[in-house]
Specification:
The complex is a heterodimer of chains A (about 375) and B (about 150). Chain A has about 375 residues and is α/β, with parallel strands linked by helices. Chain A is built from 11 helices and 8 strands. In chain A, strands 1-2-3-4-5-6-7-8 form an 8-stranded parallel beta sheet, with helices on both faces. In chain A, β2, α3 and β3 form a beta-alpha-beta unit. The two termini of chain A are about 30 Å apart. Chain B has about 150 residues and is mainly beta. Chain B starts with a strand and ends in a 7-residue tail after the last strand. Classes of the chains: A alpha/beta (about 375), B mainly beta (about 150).
Amino acid sequence: MTGPTTAPLGRRPAALPADVPVIDVDVHTVAPTIETLFPWLDTHWQEVARVTQFRGPTDTAYPPGAETSIAPEHRERHSVAETLQDIRDHVLDPWGTERAILNCTYSADAVKNPDAALALSRAVNSWVREEWLAHDERLRGSIVVPSLDPHESARVIDEFGDDPRFVQVLLPVRAFAPYGNRIWLPVMDAAARHDLAIGLHFGGTPGHPTTSVGWPSTYVEEYVDMASAFQAQLMSLVAEGVFDRLPALRVMCLESGFGWMPSFLWRFDRLWRGLRREIPWTRLPPSAYVREHVCLSMQPFDVPSTPQAFERIVDQIGSESMLCFATDYPHWQADSAEQALPPLSDGEQFRAIMAGNARSLYGTRLGG
Amino acid sequence: MTKHVLCAARELAVGEHRVFDVDGRSIGVYNVGGEFLAIRNRCPHQGGPLCEGVQVGALISEEPGTYIYDRPGEVVRCPWHAWEFDLRTGTSWFDPEHQRVKFYEVQVLTGEDVAGLMPPRPGMLPGPYRAEIVPVSVEDAYLVIDVGHIPKG
């Protein structure tokens, strides 16, 4: 399948008026093989790859062949998003996408050798920049960092953060310590210094239990429970005062779902009333920080897809400016192009979700 | 009559507080550094006995990791859900506009002033009566609270 596809996601849905701009905040490339990265790896690491079994990170939150990893229409190829043409044919062209954020969820945090993790992260960012961003002005990138080492991560952000085509720092949502912890301040500072958002992405930190109560037995448990990791990270960022330190910092939750957000905010606000003395730097209820600093990608869509249910959730979240459209290409989240849209008729809120909210979060780096 | 004599001022030492029943209202009176502050002993949240909660300072922060401990003893935390209330204003910390507890002015008056507040008892007839006279001095100071004209409850 090389030409334009007639598969579900591969067309602009009829319900999407022609004049509605589209910003897709979550489009994926495959994780590059270590050989693909050779042009950006120095001779030492090339040799390590040639003479040993070291392949870089081999873990992925989206195992090849898992139902969630690839939409059915692409499954015959086993892998898509291998080339820029794939992304053009399957999403950018048919959807008339104005901007798409390219997220290469390269598990640099799976590599325990800090020098290898650093070299590979740099190589991936160079590969993204030169092989993808440079060839299609609709694409914007996310900086991969060796997140087991916050200081090295900050160095990588400084190296690539001046390139305006990168819009965020990609951090796996599961981490060895919550991101509000002060050990991460170098990363947060570097992101703020370059006016980059933090993109929290599904997955991360292989080797640690994937739920807060220990190892689950199945993939479905890991997948469903990822929502709790997003809650834990937002909670930590608010409680540890990261947004008080860095008032301009923004966070995009990618593949987080959003149906959990109302109950999370209710609970956090309620307990904060009695427990805020522990974190006296928080001057506003936690929900106010989350509403001001955080956005969520809309796929996977984890609430009932009726307009009534959706509007109710948005009302309970208390903000119409937090949800952002995403296809999550090539992952299988929507069975039809229509399903990828917010279940709303065209209007101010619909257009905010399709583009405006992402534009506010990412700011001028989105361009255009 | 909205003014009530609570006790002699010396009965409430610095750092102490006591709950009084004032005309059906439960009110906590605090001696904060020699100044007397009073709030209703009823949390506006769920009616908890506010004045049984711990008395703390007003804690603020300029940035994460810093703690500015201010106004020792001027904040009370409800024993039920730990909400903080300012003894000086009755306002809650987290939502001073909407969540607040009634606070009262406490006056320190001399015995003579206090005697002047006492109404004549109904049904008393004017004398002359004869009785053994014992001289009484009213040199002490007394705590007097004005609960205004708010409804009981």
